Amino acid sequence: MTEDVFRFACHAAETFALGDIQTKREIFNALGGKFVLKDRTLSFEQEPWFKKISEEYPIIQQQLQEVRNKKITNLYLEMVQIGNILQNWYTRRDSNPRS
């Protein structure tokens, strides 16, 4: 995930809430997926990459909180543990597994 995508994810809800119609349209376009407006109700089918984030975020958040709750006195060790959590999540799955 690039830094721009991360920034977008962090601020999209606030930007959407405060934005004009053009800003809201740009956010919808950035999310991708299939949007259907029917009877004044907007339905959204998530793109696979976005679905992965929304499904796995609570798990990652819990793992990060567990590391922070340990109150590790060694900052380097804490950063290694956090790095491992993020690396395991971000690891791309092979499209052609060999096993």
Entry keywords:
99 residues; mainly alpha; 2 domains; 4 helices
Concise summary:
The chain is mainly alpha-helical and 99 residues long.
Question: Could you please describe the fold and organization of this structure?
Answer:
- It is a single chain.
- With 99 residues, this protein is mostly helical.
- The chain folds into two domains: 3-45, no CATH class; 55-90.
- Helix content is 66%, strand content 10%.
- The chain contains four helices and two strands.
- It has helices spanning 3-18, 21-31, 48-69, 75-90, and strands spanning 34-38, 41-45.
- The longest helix is centred in the middle third of the chain and has 22 residues, at 48-69.
- 0% of the residues are buried.
